[in-house]
Target: TRAP transporter permease
Amino acid sequence: MSHADASVLIEDRSLEEKFDPEMRFRPLRFGTAWLVAGLLFALSMFHYYTAGFGLLRETTHRGIHMAFVLGLIFLVFAARKSDQDKVAPSQWWRPGGISLLDWTLAAAAAMASLYVPSIFHELAFRVGNPTTTDVVMGTILIVVLLEAVRRSVGWPLPFIAIMVMLYAYFGPTMPGILKHPGASWSNIVNHLYLTSQGIYGIALGVVATYVFHYVLFGVLATRVGLGKLFIDLASCVAGRYAGGPAKVSIFGSALFGMISGSSIANTVTVGSLTIPAMIRMGYPRHFAAAVESTASTGGQITPPIMGAAAFLMVEFLNVSYQTVILAAIVPALMHFFGVFMQVHFEAKRSGMRGMSAEELPHAMTVLREGWQSVMPLAVLLIVLFSGFTPYLAAFWGITACVLIGTVRVPLVTMGFLAAIAGAIAAGLLTKLVFIVPVFAIVCGLMIYTWLQSEAGKAKMIELADAFVVGAKYAIGVGAAAATVGIIVGIVTLTGVGFKISFIVTSFATQIAQTLGDFMPVWLFDLKSMTLFFTLVMTAVVCILLGCGVPTTANYIIMVTVAAPALGLLGVAPIVAHFFVFYYGVLADITPPVALAAYAGASMAGADPFKTGNTAFRLGLGKALVPFVFVYGPAMLIVTPEFTWPSFLMIVSSCMVGIVLLSAAFTGYALGALRTWERWLAGLAALPIIAPDGTMTAIGLALASPVIVSQLLKARVRQAAVAA
Model:
């Protein structure tokens, strides 16, 4: 890595830490910093090793993961924000610059996390009849977990967890339909601590089994040059056209999103190159930041690495990860298409030029120098789509990253890829007879590179740092997942999820009945209107909840509470899960807490709130797409409703609607739009997007005056140019 690349990396990381609460680590004294780095490295190596050589027993694996995560949080996150940005002196009550209280909490968190795995053989006799020690240890874990997630994520999530526990305890005093028999503290701890329905449930299991590995893979793949390759390729493809840097931002964010499930990481990494270029080209600063942040939120919905929610979907729905990937492809494309059209119209309206040949990289040079960086992603996808587990695919992808980071020799790269393909064909990929020799060869190459020169040592230090940073990215989401386990556990203990679903659907039905008198029956029946208002309420709650809760936690909470409501109205489970997932992601660009937009605004020197508003407008295509695939599930490909005619009709009508909506917001298409044309285009877009032949025809009829007017303007302009 060059000095320039290193400085950019340091700046990007500082921006991530500024805007992502899960990355705001306090500065540590030298000795403590090495201890924390060693623990982070050990956490990464634990997951890397178990992914390839075999997972531990479920409860043990989750317990070890949580012990590391919670213990580290108390070492790297200060109790108060005022102490988060300064190095504390080392004193007897603050050894290593960390207070005795934090050391005690870290030890208590590790002890309480490992207690359940230690009594695993007796657990079957303890569930439902916890001992005093069980209750004490469970209480300790709940308390330290809430404090850990408060430090790493913020107040909203632990506040929600406390509220639901109070609801479980005071059930008999609740009003109306929310009333239930209640549960003693012993029963609450038993359910949350000793069963797999609470803290040690699916959410923690998915993070410990899948998410950690893919976060680590994304960091390593970026370090070996895959992120830079994607950005350079995006420049080659889109840079020469009108408003080039903005379109590079979209293509680059889409490609980078394939290896990064974090909106903020995507924004600061791709934006470090594209935002300054957009500003130089003449884009307003807030618009440049908004383009990058909006495109970057698409990273969380772009296969194959879509963040934690995609892996949770696998577990909740009991489907393969390949199914989730296939379902996500078209909606992700619609998101980027919507941003692209608004950027294109904005560039045409403002007369923005493309990038000159001197400003663009040469495609052949980019591919010749960076093609080996693609190998880790190719290995991951080959293993994944060969039917193996996602964590095994991540293991081989990480191994490929280490190999490329150690030695960039084309013959070695192609040999490794051939070895993987051969092992899959021979059925040896999961066998130690194949894993051990490959692992030994990679380790041998690392040792040789370290001993060879100072440059070799620098490579190895860079790889080790990537393992440390990968663990840093994962500890916040690990604590959040465990805390969401409390919420899910209370929902299963009290049955409140179905009660809330009943309340939501009943309220939506009342609204539909009230408005039904004013709507033609042939256009809107009661059931479709009830579904529509249920979707609207669910979307609003997802966005509001996402303002203070991480995407993963938002998804789990809304799936637990809202998905049953959609299921009651006939929405397929995978469609309901994708709906709440997409709206949870939208919160990253929705003011007042639009973290990705604020990160982009900081890089551009723009007004954060103005940037957030513009980003939300640019992302409205993404806001409409979930409604499309609810009413037209064929868009997700994997649903029973899929047929090629219905799929093509839904996708094409959605694209036409997005184009009209983009023109309405921008005020430009083939030429400038007058006020009435903008309103009519926006109004026509909504029925066109609806995957229904009648509605599409109504929308096209509404849009026809705008289309004719724009075609006439284009003809007049062409005639003027020809003259």
The CA atoms of residues 153 and 550 lie 8 Å apart. The chain has a mean pLDDT of 85.
